Amino acid sequence: MMMLLGMLIFVALLVFFFRAAAWNGCAHRGAYQPHPPQPGPSSSSLHVLDERYARGEINREEYLQKKQDILDDSATFQNRG
Fold first, then answer.
1. What is the pLDDT of residue 28?
2. Cβ contacts of residue 4 below 8 Å, gap of 6+?
3. Within a domain: 52
4. Does residue 60 belong to any structural domain of this protein?
5. Which residues, 6 or more positions from 25, have their beta carbon under 8 angstroms from its beta carbon?
6. Are the C-beta atoms of 42 and 76 separated by less than 8 Å?
7. What does the alpha-carbon distance between residue 36 and residue 8 come to, in Å, rounded to a whole number?
8. Distance of alpha carbon 9 from alpha carbon 7, whole angstroms
9. 0.70 exceeded by the pTM?
10. Can you give the pLDDT at residue 41?
11. DSSP 30
């Protein structure tokens, strides 16, 4: 009976440690990013533009025009290389 109790405690501790290790590993992976940044010169520019629009610093028309300008410049830059 004592041996069975010892085995149950041992198995419970193993499960606990494996779950703790798995949970800790997930915590260090970083924040969830629904759209990972695309490599290239325009990714940081678009990020800044998105933030300015979200803060209300620019209106929708300005946002759309600037976004199109950035994407056009990015396409031109990529075609050169």
1. 52
2. none
3. yes
4. yes
5. none
6. no
7. 44
8. 5
9. no
10. 55
11. -
Residue 44: is it exposed, middle or buried by C-beta count within 10 angstroms (0-12/13-18/19+)? exposed
Q: What is the pLDDT along the chain (81 residues), one digit of tens a residue?
A: 788 889 999 999 988 888 877 766 555 555 555 555 555 555 788 889 999 999 999 999 999 999 999 888 776 766 665
Q: Is residue 64 part of a domain?
A: yes
| Number of domains observed in the structure of the chain | 1
Supply φ then ψ for residue 21, to 5 degrees: -65, -40
Amino acid occupying residue 5? L
Give the residue numbers spanning the domain of 65. 45-81
2 lies in a domain?
Answer: no
**What's phi and psi for 48, nearest 5 deg?**
-65, -40
Alpha helices in the chain (DSSP H): 2-27, 43-55, 60-80
